[in-house]
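Dear colleague,

Following up on Tuesday's group meeting, I ran the structure prediction for the two-component complex that the binding team flagged. I've pasted the input sequences exactly as they went in, so you can double-check that nothing got truncated or mislabelled along the way. The structure tokens for the whole assembly follow below. Feel free to forward this to whoever is handling the docking comparison.

Inputs:
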Amino acid sequence: MIEVEIDGKKFQVEPGKMIIEVADQIDSGIGEIPRFCYHKKLSIAANCRMCLVDVEKSGKPLPACATPVTDGMIVRTRSQKAREAQKAVMEFLLINHPLDCPICDQGGECELQDVAMGYGQDISRYNEGKRSVKDKNLGSLVATEMTRCIHCTRCVRFGDEIAGMQELGTIGRGESTEIGTCVERSLVSELSGNIIDLCPVGALTSKPFRFSARAWEMEQAPSIAPHDCVGSNLNLHTLRQKVMRVVPRENESINETWLSDRDRFSYEALSSDERLLQPMIKENDEWLVTDWPTALTLVAEKLGKIAQEQGANKIGALLSPSSTIEEIYLSQKMLRKLGSNNIDHRLQQIDFSAQDSMPFYPGLPMSLEDIETQNTLFLVGSHINHEQPIAGYRVRKAALLGCSVFVLNPADYTFRFPVQDKCIVKPSAMPNVLAEVIKVLLEKGIEEPVAGLRELVNAVQPSEFAHTLAAALLTEGKKTIILGAIAQNHSHAGHIKQLADALAKMTHGHVAFLTAGANSAGAWIAGGIPHRGANKKNLTHPGMNTQQMLEARLSAYLLLNVEPGLDCANPLLANQAMSTAEFVVSISPYFCHKVASYSDVLLPSVPFSETAGTFVNAEGKWQSFKGAVQPQGEARPAWKIIRVLANLLELPEFDYQSCDEVYGELMQKVAENKADSHFSLSIPSYLPQTIVGIERLTEWPIYRADSLVRRAPSLQETVINDSPVARMSLDLANRLQLSADCHVIVKQGEGEAILPVELSDTIPDNTVYIPAGFGLTAELAAPFGAISIERSDS
Amino acid sequence: MSSQEKLSILSQAARAEIDHWLTKYPPEQKRSALLPALHIVQDENGGWLSPELIEGVAHYLGIPPVAAYEVATFYSMYDLQPVGRNKVKVCTSISCMLRGADELLAYMESHLGIKAGETTPDGRITLKKAECLAACGGAPAVMINRNYHENITPEKANELLDDLE
């Protein structure tokens, strides 16, 4: 420790810290040193010179951001010498900056404006012409006004250091320096919106929010991101009961100061024209607006009648994995009290064979921060940068700290971090690759963790990748196998999970799940699964999972914020099941024409911004939030809708007055009965065969993942959002005599869709990537498995 | 553009020459070869770099395209538009400016009938302003193609320009 004195105050600090870091410490008592280019999360550039301070024994003022403290250093941040230097820099920075604050979106929350108030002069001595810079089109999310740029390069450093892809650069030199892209192109980083927050001036602002409100008019309400299992903390900015924009809320252990574009811009959907604002019932195939008592009484009567006459097991509930834990808990409580265990939130999955050996909830067996301390990470079936952008950033940090990242995927995704080695195979070959690694480990003398494993993997031929990975997994240090969306949604997801468990056991590593939606972990805890009640209560008669419910053609379905054709793994089957059901009730914030075509009652619920609730993230953190604005129209929080429904069904113990009571009841169960998260290792009885012909690969594209994001127009316009295509390798296209400009007929069982061909060298041979989450691809069946493809001449 | 297409924009010869430069740096520091690589590709392309070529070089060195573009736009040795057969660069930085570079440039402009940054209609000469040529001792300095010329007066400039093919 060394001692430095800043503005007369003495500090004991670690050597190597910069003066600005010491002064920025909370409780330092030092007034803020003005700065533009310095940002605590970015490398030091020291190019704006605004933070010049007076250091004793130094002739010239020194930049506080780039001057390390030394023992006995005496710093003055407000002496005459410091002030003069700061004011001089301010004058230079304002020379070319336009005086357009009244029409600038940054006005009122602008670092330049604030600092100019403190250090600028009220008149300029500069009478020459100011320079102007052409604006750049960076796509649908970030608006530019490049004349305002002061070249702090925070946005450039963000791309290079945080996002992991440098998209912006300092183009040109001297007076003609500009911030720009190579050839003018849209940003593709899934974290691009953060440059809006980083920009200290109005050069980079939010395009969707542009000119819609002033910073000082809005109110700020804390909330939790509703899209992925990271549970990023955010603030909703509201004006006159409308969410105007979303900004990150700093939480070092979760999202730090960042926010993914999906979490930042999906708010557009909160005031979508498609919001369902009144309860509706269908009479003679026509939709009639009605009141809550009528609609709810009808639902209660219908459900009650079906339960009584056909049995409660003829009723099933599908829940969005982004529902709050309170909504899920009440839904399962209602359904189970009614006598049915048919409830599931795992809409994208088709193989549930390993569900009994699942932990209390699927997630990270560590904190998000701990990802960074891993020595070896093995991503299986994960497009992590698109599935959970912030978790992808944590993996990037790990990789930069020296962690070896290995990848087993059915497509060669571009990751924002260096990958040590990768194995890209067709989806059906993925379990085999895991078996290969296990075989290498057994050959190296690692003990069989469970009998029968040796026999199971005996026939496989380990590839070079299997040898490299096995060697890496055997080295000392922390290792984790991350199962992503593709691993969980795979047609042999059970095999993948069991083999990954065995692999982890053999190498003293962990298995982590990065699940779909904002609250999959919460859904497991609250009993939103057919085989366990709330708090891992074992059931004697497990209910049906999503796939079974759809195959069984139940008499009644309850949909909680689900659009079956876009959210379910098998949209063809889902739409058929809904169409043939006697009674379908949809509780959703949106009116969807497809859902309306087979529903009997539509009950308007509210999105996360209009209700209290709780999401449990991948690390098991319970994060509650309150509604930031009033429910729109007649829409009501889903927990209230379900509570009243349960009351009308005359089910006991549904007397909740507030969301907190629901939370309390569940929390008490969890606290009382500390759930056992251990499970016994089981192995599959066979290794699945690799499909010989053409097979399908499916992902939910980043901005098609749930009903909210699908209705955010600016995100839909981005270049990284997939369109409905049949993407394949050039080799396969050549063999099928297809070219990039033609269409194909894709056939899958009874399902059929006509899609444009897209060629890509990221897709393995004999594999066709077809995204889910689109009306066009909802005519197809399972996300994986054999498909046939032929040229469409139309 | 597929990665194959991005690479194939560089000729075999250019790639071989870049490979030679790459041996001079540590394998994980391929970025270090960016300056010579841009020169190689520029020379082969008649003295200028197209955005596609810059991207091709970036791809070959495994760096972001914009990082190569930053470098190509920073140095006055790289041209981003088609150029004439000869490049004439007049230093206008401080020492040369004090020794009459502005007048020299104005003279050259009127002599050639073009402005700095332009090429004569016959494609003979491209005239450019240059940032400091590091020849302050002989200011004003002019660089013609790869050669330095110091203490240039309008008369000397006349001679030099007229000698160019």
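Residues 364-513 of chain A form a domain with the Dimethylsulfoxide Reductase; domain 2 fold (CATH 3.40.228.10).

Cheers,
M.
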